[in-house]
Design a protein that fits this description.
homotrimer, alpha+beta, seven-stranded mixed β-sheet, seven-stranded mixed β-barrel, 15 strands
């Protein structure tokens, strides 16, 4: 797979301090021609699940051969491994803590390698900022074509994690949960069964409410609570011009059922 | 007009979730060489007026041939039209909901076309994320030179809107309003009459206060309320080292008068 | 020194309004091929010290020949000078208000010149937005190779400032202070003596607490207050999975001692 020259960053570093800027400096020091795109740096600190969810949903929209560097890393400086992976026509670089679990689940050709920093000639990383010292440099080596995927290190199997749960099916119904709350307060669930949502009579249940599935936000009056199939394919619960999270006091993990 | 290779984005999507990152992926999938610049993604959700104001003030500072993609789109998924426009040496792509009203008002060569997604070979967009499925792709087609402006679709006239009002003149005075509050709490008005501000005796009235027009923030002591002509040419009301919005309890729509 | 084609921006303008986007437009108008990287735009308004600290820590991670444009500028529109500098293989453009004091202190080859806007053919800048009208244009001229450093203007000596204090040494101890609080609430100090931190018995005192120096965040249990040598070389005080700033009610200027 040829690198596209594009590298994305996904972290929980925020944008108040120049941590992300410094990572970009490191990338451009490797090759000043790379295009760097921020996915987000506002992942709730150390919340690997949100990062895993968004990474899996965002990557397919980039050119084939893009390198996605994701750093939400509560175990920085400990023995947790650093991983590079290849899947679905893209590269990924991340700590081995579940950040790649949704990408691995959703691709059929997922292949991981453990990063061998010493063998790659990287200087010993600090014990607190592997985004700068390990993940950005490896991402830049892959994105610039200086390092082939096979050269990253030995083959590896991801740590088994379940930050983002999967739903349970039973006949013409399924039980899932809210997995991410977006900035508008929309509740994004893990319910994305194909076929389900074609049924115009699908009903969604959440915290005692029984909701219809509509086509778009403007299909209901302002203030109304309803559900729709969101732009990434999952069932979402929303309040038009409002926050479903606030109205329902719902959050990650809130159970959601659907029947059709 | 030749595209400059630069494409700007202006949305109300925020930067918490990777919606903007995904739009950039779509743009770079069309051409990985484009330069993408964020104008802002912090427009108050669905506040078309603020977006219209800032778009008109920001675009002239970019290279001629830049494509400006603006998405504040309460009507996404409904029958509202999608528009591409050409004006003042720049391209614009936006929903037809008033987002381009200030650009249209301030340029003498404004020309709009309705985007015909099917004719452009775009796959049917989702009903909730036209930023990704319609506006970013069309912007990238224009910015990469793959699509000529004439090929966007049929000529169109913008929907008549007045999100950003115009002031009323009467002799040596004018009555306008606050149209945007910036992040420092400065109150930016719609008063920008040429000639007005040369008069050293101009006085500004707002919520019972009578203010002098000074040259720069540091011309008054800290904590002082005053007015100046801002860097984009409009009369602004400020508190040095403070927030005029907070001090005056002023907001969008607060009436402001000026006489000279 | 050859420009790298990379230009960074560091301001207190925030990202709510398109001020930073407009600066990027100005840069790209000079040369659409430049790569622009945000260090941060969330410097507390007018807090020159935080900007000076981060600029000095971030710049070495960029390719040699990068231009760093920094604008935290309470004196905009007054007689304060505008400066371009060359140091450590990088270029800097900033107001002469202390923003470059830490860079100057940490480099051995610091050389400054006063920007002569008229001589450079820049149009007279607004009195409130020199980021757009002066600093971004000069940065772009340097980054594109259009202007040589010697051509910026006459040699200049920086205004003497101490926004970021230096620690005081006494034998096997030193007294310093918190100089920056990062977004996680970690307290970054000005204590970075080489040799100090190799001593495994170093003890840190802050607000009556006596703390050990550990290797990384995960070396202590969640909720624990401790110290470590941060990724930029300074002693930092942290609470694992928490905010040391909140736990200690500490802030910029809080005294910190270390002995070993």
């Amino acid at each position: 797979m040829r690198p596209s020259g594009v590298l994305t960053l996904l972290t929980d570093f925020g944008t108040q301090d120049p941590f992300v800027g410094v990572m970009k400096g490191v990338v451009l020091k490797q090759s000043a021609r790379l295009s760097i795109v921020d996915l987000t740096h506002a992942i709730e600190p150390q919340h690997v699940g949100d990062a895993a969810f968004w990474l899996a949903h965002a990557f397919p929209w980039f050119p084939e051969g893009t390198v996605h560097v994701a750093v939400v890393d509560p175990g920085v400086g400990t023995a947790r491994r650093a991983i590079a992976a290849q899947a679905g026509g893209h590269f990924f670089v991340a700590p081995d803590n579940g950040l790649l679990e949704v990408v691995a689940r959703r691709t059929s050709d997922f292949e991981a390698r453990e990063i061998d920093a010493e063998d790659l000639g990287l200087r010993p990383p600090s014990r607190t900022f592997h985004g700068r010292d390990l993940f950005a440099p490896v991402g830049a080596l892959l994105a610039s074509g200086t390092l082939a995927f096979d050269g990253v290190g030995p083959r590896a199997t991801l740590l088994a994690t379940t930050h983002v749960p999967e739903p349970v099916h039973a006949g013409r119904s399924a039980r899932g949960a809210v997995v991410v709350v977006d900035r508008f307060g929309n509740l994004i669930t893990n319910l994305s069964e194909s076929g389900l949502f074609a049924a115009s009579r699908a009903r969604v249940s959440v915290l005692g409410h029984d909701l219809a599935v509509v086509g778009t936000f403007a299909d209901v009056p302002p203030g109304t609570l309803a559900a729709l199939v969101g732009s990434f394919g999952e069932l979402e619960i929303f309040v038009r011009n409002g926050s479903a999270a606030a109205v329902l006091s719902a959050q990650r993990g809130t159970p959601v059922g659907v029947s059709w």
